[in-house]
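Justification of computing resources. Each target in the renewal requires a structure prediction run like the one illustrated here; the chain below, 330 residues long, is used simply to show the kind of job we budget for.
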Amino acid sequence: MQALLDPAILFFLLGVLAGFLKSNLEVPAQISRFLALYLLMALGLKGGFALAKSGFTADVAMALALALLLAVLIPGIGYLVMRKLLAPFDAAAVAATYGSVSAVTFITAVQYMESRGYAFGGHMAAAMALMESPAIIIAIAIAAQLRKRQPVVANASPNAPAQGSLKSVLHEALTDGAQFLLLGSMAIGFMTGQDGKLAMEPFTGSLFKGMLAFFLLDMGLSAARNLPKLKGQTPWIYAYAVVAPLLHAGLALGLGYVFGLAAGDLALLMVLAASASYIAVPAVLKHSMPEANPALYFGMSLGITLPLNLVIGIPLYVQLAFQAVGTPGP
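Resulting structure tokens:
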């Protein structure tokens, strides 16, 4: 209950309420875009500053390796499950959505832990970047195989949506502006270290939470307005949108515990595994997999999974991680 009293979460819930009540409250798209870029830049800098202080150690390498492993396992398992419930292209799209990550969920978790004094490694921002693209690549590869099995349609319409090649999708995924800004900011933070940290205050400090609260207000509005898009779909997708994040977090918990991750890093790995993309994956799949229904995978991730993780998931994952490792909280 205490997590709900966090101002950022309360602003998210305010946005959800405004959306359900059909209020005319809205955040202009350009401002929302600016807030997203600000949060990624600030997060990258903070991660770089922390990594400069700790150095690149074996523990850092292990956390990044586990993040990459989860980024392959989760979409693979997700597709095997969802193809029993959905059409093949929809199954691949949902698997990609839940195999990738949500920067907003991660940033909110970082703020939650910082405000409560929980320690974690700045390199986990790099783990987030690593986990974004593999699911997209896997989904595009699956789609390519599905298309090979389909009969060629004679006299296909010249206006049919183009399907990007794997090469173009790889380029788009790996050079995406948001991810590029995150990694570049982390590199700058790492190179400048403590001097850079002092120079960038209050940009990465006192302003951060207010900007996050404003952005989460917009996310709450979007969540409320996208949930109705799932009307008429099989009830199993609602169950998946709730249960899958918990199972993915549990998988991360098991791997992190076995390989000895520090409690704070383990908590953030669980957050990443439990999150689902609602920006990067939909943007790529809209053009590269037009056979899939965007309302399905977008509505699930933004309408159900994002609110679940922000309100309940983050405090739960943090608590479980510290209990598993046996490290007391602050």
